[in-house]
Amino acid sequence: MIEVRNLTKHYGDKRAVNNISFTVEDGEILGFLGPNGAGKSTTMNMLTGYISSSSGQALINGVDILEDPIKAKSYIGYLPELPPLYLDMTVKSYLNYIFDLKKCKLPRRAHLNEVMSLTKINDVQHRLIKNLSKGYKQRVGVAQALIGNPPVLILDEPTVGLDPKQILEIRTLIKKLGKNHTVILSSHILSEIQAVCDRIIIINHGVIAAHDTADNLSKNISTDHRIIARIEGPREEIVKALRNIEGIKYCRADMEREDGVYEYEMEADPGADIRRDLFDIVAEHHWPLLALRSAEMTLEDVFLKITMGEGIVIPNAEDDALAAESKKGGEN
Amino acid sequence: MGAIFRREFGAFFTSSIAYIFLGVFWLFSGYFFYAYCLYNGTTDMSGLFQNLFLICVFLIPILTMRLFSEEKKQKTEQGLLTAPVSLGSIVFGKYFAALMLYTIALLMPFVYALILSSFGVVEWGIVFANFLALFLLGGAFIAVGTLISSLTENQIAAAVVSFVMLMALYMVDVIGNLIDSTKKLTLLHIGGLKLVFKMEWITNFLSSISFYRKYYAITCGLFNVSTVVFYISVAVLFNYFTIRVFERRRWS
After folding, report:
1. Considering only CA atoms, which of A137, A105, A106 is closest in space to residue A119?
2. Are residues A146 and A267 in the same domain?
3. DSSP label of A297
4. In this structure, are A101 and A9 located in the same domain?
5. Of these four, A91, A153, A290, B155, which has the most CB atoms within 10 Å of its CB?
6. What is the CATH number of the domain that holds A148?
7. Are residues A182 and A251 located together in one domain of the fold?
8. Within this chain, do residues A37 and A185 fall inside the same structural domain, yes or no?
9. Residues A164 and A182 reside in one and the same domain
10. A76, A86, A94, A96: which to substitute to probe chain B, counting the most B Cβ within 10 Å?
């Protein structure tokens, strides 16, 4: 179990992490979500004792990381942002070294084989780490965290730089590990966190912007009631008509995709399904509906929603186009 | 500590530093053995050992340059510092690995002593005192190099700064000899009160911290326990500084 109380880290005047508190129960997978530089890695570095906190407390299985660092660290398997690999060692000798470093008491051969087969690095065990591909290096990094079977696993962006197949494999592995380990995982990819974690903490500018279970959070940021339609016809009339749909919160015209065809972005109240009403309206006016899809929430959208509240309603179409442009600019 | 020691010792050989260090050390010690002992036909090895001091000044920075700087550069330091080991065992694990390699290098002059003993009478007491002095000197120098390696992530910078530091420790004696120790400076003269600064104080201080003077005395056969204590204290002190460097970095 991990308990974090009012953890704060200053770098000079800059506050990298500000007053963060949360707990992670045994057997739970917690996701840290946030853009680069939000304070995810700093928090993890404090939890693992790599850097000290300016104030606040972090307890690993009830042991304060600053008061009894050696005992607290022995509970943790840590994969930093850059896996701490010695490039001039073979995979097997490296894992042997980690086994000794962690003063592991488990039967050596059986344990190393188990870890290597879990992370699927059996076939490269006699190769030098510097000759491995990025995906394999990352897996060796996960393997070193698993050595000694620590009850707590802290993984900093474990899937960064992997190809889609490897990402899926690592995710499956983390889910599997989550059954009998306490896991903290960080990422800046929303879908990844959603796929793996029980609970999510969104960090922005060093503070917790949201903290909820994956289910609740995804209900909030669910994509069901947010749709994008591509409709041919007069733009302003269409926007006006669409705004009359019951339960709609806002509607705006986006870019002109084809000649006389605009994309319209709309959002309804949570739970409301406006697709049928939308169809009725465009059919009534003979505006051909060329495409209809649910909007994908980007991390930026989630942040906007969580940090700035819900009301991003833009009054008329001229402003809408401008706003859409500026929003695009802001994303880049 | 054992794991770190073993890995570090192995890394000396995979990074080829061990071969360069041993090769160059043995090359020079071989040359001095020839020049002082074989050419002169003597079993007195003090000339060889006096010259090995300077060889240590040149070679020990190469031995210690990558101990911590490489960890920092490759980001493997994070793995070490989050492992359930104390800072002391990290620093001493690495220190002893370098000391071990240095001790292996010292085996060759010992072989020379054995060779000499088959041709003449070797004063084993003096030879062993020489070995002890050379070993302790290396122990102190390696601790200095280890500290400097922990301050940078650039191996070359670590090597150059360590070299300058060790050279300065060597030069302390030279500087001491340049100062006229009989000179007195009157700093203040008010009434009957006279404040005098004796240059003797500086030369005394410099000679008491001089690495070379103590070493030289042993090569001449004057064994002094205070010398042993001095070298060991320097080694312990600098390793302690290295531990403090990591502690400070964690808390900054």
Report:
1. A137
2. no
3. P
4. yes
5. A91
6. 3.40.50.300
7. no
8. yes
9. yes
10. A86
Domain boundary, last residue among A166, A198, A220: A220
pLDDT at A320: 44
Lowest-pLDDT range of A23-37, A81-95, B234-248: A23-37
CA dist B237 and A172 (Å) reads 50
For B107, phi then psi, to 5°, come to -65, -30
How many CB atoms within 10 Å of residue B252? 9
pLDDT, one tens digit per residue, over A214-239 is 777 666 655 556 788 888 888 888 88
State the nearest Cα–Cα gap between A52 and chain B, in angstroms.
5
A63 touches chain B (CB under 8 A): no
**A246 and A172 within one domain:** no
Cβ pair A13, A182 in contact under 8 A:
no
Residues of chain B positioned with their CB less than 8 A from the CB of A144: 79
Residue contact A70–B86, C-beta within 8 A = yes
A203 min Cα distance to partner chain B (Å): 23
pLDDT bin (cut points 50, 70, 90) of residue A314 is: very low
- Residue A67, chain B, CB below 8 Å: the answer is no
A253 three-state secondary structure: strand
Least CB-CB distance to B75: which of A48, A52, A82?
A82
Q: Which chain A residue shows the shortest CA-CA distance from B14?
A: A88
**Total tally of structural domains belonging to chain A:** 2
In terms of residue numbers, what domain contains A201? 2-220
Question: A142: distance to nearest CA of chain B, Å?
Answer: 12
Q: What are phi and psi of A224, to 5 degrees?
A: -60, -45
Question: Nearest Cβ partner of B81 from A50, A86, A144?
Answer: A50
Asked if B93 and B3 count as a contact pair (C-beta separation under 8 A), the reply is yes
Q: How far from B78 is each of A28, A46, A82, A226, B72, CA to CA, in Å? A: 25, 12, 9, 43, 8
Q: Are A208 and A202 in contact (CB under 8 A)?
A: yes
The number of residues in chain A equals 332
Chain B hits for A103, CB-CB cut-off 8 Å, are 84-85
The pLDDT tens digits of the residues spanning B63-117 come to: 999 999 999 998 899 999 999 999 999 999 999 999 999 999 999 988 999 998 8
> Which range has highest mean pLDDT (A32-46, A70-84, A258-272)?
A70-84
Let me know whether A204 and A258 are in one domain. no
The CATH number linked to A242 is: 3.30.70.3100
Mean pLDDT of chain B: 89
- How far is residue A4's CA from residue B84's CA, in Å, rounded to a whole number? 20
Q: Which of A200, A220, A240 is the last residue of a domain?
A: A220
Whether the predicted interface score ipTM is above 0.90: no
Mean of the pLDDT values across residues B2-15?
Answer: 92
Do A62 and A181 reside in the same domain of the chain? yes
